[in-house]
Design goal:
mainly beta; four-stranded antiparallel β-sheet
Amino acid sequence: QVQLVESGGGLVQSGGSLRLSCAYDDLPTDDYAVGWFRQAPGKDREGFACMYLESKLTALEDFVAGRFTISSDNAKKTVYLQMNDLKPEDSGTYYCAAQSYCSYYDMQYWGKGTLVTVSS
């Protein structure tokens, strides 16, 4: 059974940094895709980062490119989201998700999320 557990959220001031972790287990294949999504209160969920675990191919939406980086340590079965220069509009619950291909719209397996709050 696929397991995804996010951690690393918290309260940070505008301009600060956070690194989120997504610990995964029991993925069906070595080159599974893991993505990051977020949802702010009253807003739709949005996907913005994704990578393939074996090939290390990554993709980022323009609105986070240059500030966020997605990476993985496959030995630790963990995907990271490094977030720099955080802004109040980055606040929300951050989820990691997984399936056989990257998608910014929906994925098959989901974690329960970790809350990020950026104060101005």
